[in-house]
Amino acid sequence: MSSESHSELECFRQLQQSPEIFELIASHSGTEFQLQKQLREQYPEDVVRAALTLAELRMRGRAKFSRADQMWFDRKSLEQATPEAVSNYKAARFSGSVYDFCCGMGGDLVALAQHARVTGVDLEPVLCQFARWNSEVYEVVDRVTVVNQPLEEVKDREGLLHIDPDRRPHSGGKVIRIEDYRPDLETLLGLIQEFAGGAIKLSPASNFAGKFPGSETELISLNGECKEATVWFGTLAGESEFRATAISKSGEVATIAGHPMDAFCSVTPPGGYLYDPDPAVVRSGLLDVAAAECDLNRLDAEEEYLTSSEPVDSPFFRRFRILAELSNQDRDLKKYFRSADFGQLEIKCRRIPVPIEALRRKLSLKGKGAGVLVIARLDGKSRALVCERE
Asked: Where is each THUMP-like domain found (predicted)?
């Protein structure tokens, strides 16, 4: 352990032994300067800095974790952590004993421990300590072991594997290519051969296509935002090559599996309804599969927007009622919105670049309603669809 890591770890240990500092931060009603002055009269300066940062991160962490107010993380580990709803969904496939390589602050670790005995492995001593404390927060510490060492030194291959490679291995920010992850693609492929089964967490924007033959790649969205691509391998892989899963704000899960070539949707003119697909469906390549299941058609061979004459309910699509079809010309758009009863307008586009704010300023929005303007290709032609949310 480097002297810097040791110093940081000791700072957090002092902070963990002084929980009352967070009560002082929460109850303080003065200025930030007054708060810092008060705390520094009672605690070392590095502990005060760590406490103020962690208090801020705990508030931010509520968007990901139900017990964020008690958890331990730093900025990077919170940003990279899997949201609790996604971790819980993935963890349900695991049982028995599991290694969680690159466990970080333990977001996936504590979810896995609800179903299995888990050994977390991470190179960073501070993150290992966070993982231990967070397993206490989630009351699974009796099923968790955390090891601070390089994963290359772990020789045991019994049980299953979950691994979350570092997507920020350098100071230059996120990397997209899996070959640039740490561990890299070659190491990940080796682990697939060595473990009976498991899951690899990847960015949904990564170049995962064709990299993991014989596996199942699942794109997972939460509240309409694609969060990760999970590569299931060995005994945990499903029968299909691709899967798209949408988790709603209320925790409901919808999933569909298949191959992009399993279905083909016709291109038709707009019906009475427009559908915007969940990004997990789009990124998995299963748009036509999900559309065929719902009897929807494409508006264009390349566009992801779909249409139908009758309303269709599906967790994979947001539905809009089409009010008008216009040319994508400023003259026609201005004329329509001068007489339309819209005070708010959401402008959506996927394949056609649109200066959204500049366009919004050109339109008269003096009414009371809320509308949606979709700029899209309809059978190869750029058009504008005026809609309202269903």
From this structure: 318-389
Concatenating the DSSP letter of every residue in 269-288 gives ---SEEEEE-HHHHHHT-HH
Q: Hey, which bits of 235-280 come out as E strands? A: 242-247, 253-258, 273-277
Which of 3.20.20.360, 2.60.120.10, 1.10.1040.10, 3.40.50.150 would CATH assign to domain 78-257? 3.40.50.150
The pTM (predicted TM-score) of the whole model is 0.93
DSSP 294-316: TT-EESSSS---EEESS----TT
Calculate mean pLDDT across residues 120-145.
98
**Mean of the pLDDT values across residues 279-298?**
97
Give the integer Cα–Cα distance in Å for 248 and 273: 22
Count the helix, strand and coil residues of the chain and give each as a percent rounded to the nearest 5. Answer: 35, 30, 35
- In this prediction, residue 157 carries a pLDDT of 96
Cβ atoms of 276 and 305 closer than 8 Å: yes
3-state secondary structure at position 386: strand
CA distances from 30 to 27, 36, 40, 52, 55 (A): 9, 10, 15, 14, 16
Interatomic CA distance for residues 11 and 74, integer angstroms: 13
Question: What is the rounded distance in angstroms from the CA atom of residue 111 to the CA atom of residue 198?
Answer: 15
What pLDDT digit, counting tens, does each position of 32-45 carry? 889 999 999 999 99
For residue 369, what are the β-bridge partners?
342
Residue type, 332: D
pLDDT digits (tens, 9 = 90+) for 150-192: 999 999 999 999 999 998 776 567 888 999 999 999 999 999 9
CA-CA-CA-CA torsion for 203, 230, 104, 83, nearest 10 degrees? 80
